Structure prediction request, 107 residues.
Amino acid sequence: MDLSDFINHEEVILQESLQNNQDILTNVEDLIMLLSDVVISEDKRAGSFYLLSSQVRNDLFLCILSSLRRHETQSKLMKRQAIEKACLATYSLVEPDFDKFLGQDEN
Prediction:
């Protein structure tokens, strides 16, 4: 099997996934758009939240792409990354100082 066969097979899988999961895709797209429409604040304390929430959005996007292509391990990894960054983003609303929760110690 050559590379073009793999590419064609991936395309077939992607098209089937798009057709079979349209309702899920709509919900995920709405969630990603909701994360994109965050109110902009000039308060410096919100910087860490905006940074982390944009990473959550990117991880969710990569998760859905991996799921559509049936790359389950990659999809689960990206879902985990999104959840972890969402927790950090939530915590950043309480503790906005980067160094307190994103800093590194001497080890």
Notes: The chain has one domain: 3-36+45-95. The mean pLDDT is 81. The radius of gyration is 18 Å. The helical segments are 3-20, 22-36, 47-68, 72-94, 98-101.
